[in-house]
Design goal:
Shape: elongated
Helix content: over 70%
Transmembrane segments: 39-58
Distance between the termini: 40 Å
Number of domains: 1
Number of strands: 0
Keywords: Membrane, Transmembrane, Transmembrane helix
Largest sheet: none
Radius of gyration: 21 Å
Strand content: under 5%
């Protein structure tokens, strides 16, 4: 079974979040403090933040622009319209990719 790159990234971030939670619980344990339910819940929440903040940031800065570019390429392949304009914000990390696919004059 082939796992998509997106799923691999999400699983990697989930593992990172669990590692952060485990490190927090381990640090409390090694410090000799009692492991209360509150400490464990706080550690799990810290791990979830470690997972969801990067996902949220990356999906906004890369995910949406890549999805727009993907839709434009798919539509061009479907109907053969090589004059299609692609919206790629100049500050976007995918702007060089969009420029390589379409001449700058057709980017809006």
């Amino acid at each position: 079974m082939r796992v998509s790159i997106s799923m691999q990234v999400h699983l990697g971030l989930l593992a990172t979040g669990l590692a952060v939670a485990g490190a927090a619980v381990g640090g409390v344990y090694l410090a000799g403090a009692p492991l209360s339910t509150g400490i464990i819940v706080y550690s799990v929440l810290l791990g979830l933040v470690a997972v969801f903040v990067p996902v949220w940031i990356l999906s906004g800065s890369l995910g949406r622009p890549l999805e727009l570019l993907h839709q434009a390429v798919a539509a061009t392949r479907r109907d053969g319209d090589l004059t299609r304009e692609v919206t790629a914000p100049p500050a976007s990390p995918i702007a060089p990719l969009a420029t390589a696919c379409w001449p700058p004059s057709t980017l809006s």
